[in-house]
Specification:
Layout lengths: L2 H11 L6 H11 L3 E5 L5 E4 L1 H7 L3 H4 L13 H13 L4 E11 L5 E13 L2 E10 L1 H36 L8 H31 L5 E7 H18 L3 E4 L7 E4 L1 H17 L6 E9 L2 E7 L25 H4 L5 H11 L3 E6 L5 E8 L1 H7 L11 E3 L1
Parallel strand pairs: 7-9
Antiparallel strand pairs: 1-2, 1-5, 3-4, 4-5, 6-8, 6-13, 9-10, 10-12, 11-12
The structure holds adenosine-5'-diphosphate and magnesium ion.
The site of adenosine-5'-diphosphate has 21 residues, from helix 9 and helix 11.
């Protein structure tokens, strides 16, 4: 609704008529974001009260000054460049980055999010900037990241050693144990492994999101990698009474990928397929070559993905809304990790309802040759891995 029609709406129901300008002025003064109007050369011609509060200046101190006073000294050259670019391509845009900083009157910095909109005025184009102070959000996010990273690291080391020791005890490394003791140790072992998986998921997510992941891209033979991932998940499948099979028609082929992270993708898909399969069922993994792409799919015979959950399935911490105990064992991070890694490798991930029930999750990864082109890789000798940060 335009301000004018809003004013008419109010006017028709109320006795007094309110001018649209008054509504706009009133709104700008209580708007919880700072508003700034700047000339193409950078001179400030308007600053709202929230902007005064955010940057610690009185309006009169700002009007007539260049916008540089609100920019940290070391970023001013860069900012002038942005301004020139905006003058060339004046279009509505939103800048949202943890690294976007502003400078208060007292010299301290604040983190900001900025929306820019060009407006035409009599004497040329002006820039309308709406600025939000996101310092608190940025600080809380980095505290959270740090906390998650520390806790996960501190948990993973002792947990891995507990799981390892329990495995050895079950394997009678400590001598023969009575049957009931072995049964209890088996439960403890399975649960400690589950905790290791959860912590690993949280750590992976944190690593990916903080941009700390390094992909070492090499020529990978996909069939060997998938076979290895299946072998590593057999124990987990047995706990659920599920068999994993590699479809006999599977092709082999070379792709350009990071084998550890690709194994992580297959493992996450397998763990879901296994977890959501009824006992006695089979999970089928297939590899197909499609042009210069390789498609790895994992099919199960479980209850499938509920329709209402489909749009959210790749979101972080998303789990379908039901009381399935199998789901409660997870974090809702597995598929989000799959998606992020697949995309970083130049691929895609999708899922479909399987004919006859169950779900099929597939990842498509560029083949060796296409991968080189898609990832814009310099031509490196085949034996030399390429590092993608
Ligand atoms: N093969 C599958 N069949 C049915 N639902 C699935 C399947 N894979 C994933 N889902 C749904 O997607 C949710 C998110 O999966 P994921 O991100 O791996 O998290 P988690 O396994 O930790 O719950 C699951 O909790 C489940 O609701
Ligand atoms: Mg999962």
């Amino acid at each position: 609704m335009s301000v004018a029609s809003l004013a008419c709406g109010i006017a028709s129901g109320a006795t007094a008529k309110i001018a649209p300008e008054d509504i706009l002025k009133g709104a700008i003064e209580v708007f919880p974001f700072g508003i700034l109007i700047v000339q193409p050369g950078g001179q400030i011609i308007f600053a709202s009260s929230e902007l005064e509060r955010m940057f610690g200046y009185a309006r009169d101190e700002l009007v007539g000054q260049t916008v540089d006073v609100l920019v940290p000294t070391n970023l001013r050259v860069q900012h002038a460049e942005h301004r020139r670019n905006f003058a060339v391509h004046p279009e509505m845009r939103k800048a949202n980055s943890r690294n976007l900083s502003g400078r208060r009157k007292d010299g301290s910095e604040l983190q900001v999010e900025i929306g820019l909109n060009p407006i035409q005025a009599g004497d040329g184009a002006l820039v309308l900037a709406v600025i939000s102070d996101i310092s608190d959000r940025t600080r809380i996010e980095s505290l959270k990241d740090e906390f998650v990273a520390t806790v996960s690291h501190e948990l993973r080391t002792p947990l891995t050693s507990i799981a390892g020791a329990l495995g050895l005890l079950i394997g009678h490394a400590g001598g023969n144990l009575p049957g009931p003791a072995v049964r209890l140790l088996t439960i403890a072992h399975a649960n400690s492994q589950r905790l290791v998986r959860l912590v690993n998921n949280i750590l992976d997510m944190e690593k990916i999101e903080s941009g700390k992941v390094v992909f070492v891209l090499k020529r990978v033979e996909v069939r060997a990698l998938v076979t290895q991932a299946i072998e590593s998940n057999r124990g987990f499948a047995e706990e659920y009474g599920v068999r994993i099979k590699l479809d006999a028609a599977s092709t082999s082929g070379d792709i350009r990928a990071d084998s550890d992270w690709l194994t992580q993708i297959v493992t996450n898909l397998l763990s879901n397929a296994i977890k959501f399969s009824p006992r006695g069922e089979e999970v089928v993994v297939a590899i197909k070559t499609q042009g210069d792409k390789v498609l790895i799919s994992v099919r199960d015979h479980g209850h499938g993905v509920p329709d209402e959950f489909k749009p959210r399935i790749f979101e972080k911490f998303a789990q379908a809304d039901n009381s399935d105990a199998r789901q409660q064992g997870g974090t809702g991070l597995g598929l989000s990790i799959v998606k992020q890694i697949a995309e970083r490798l130049g691929g895609t991930v999708r899922f479909d309802d399987a004919p006859g029930g169950g779900a099929i999750f597939s990842v498509e990864i560029p083949g060796w040759q296409q991968g080189r082109a898609a990832l814009n890789s310099p031509v490196v000798p085949e034996h030399e891995p390429e590092v993608l940060r």
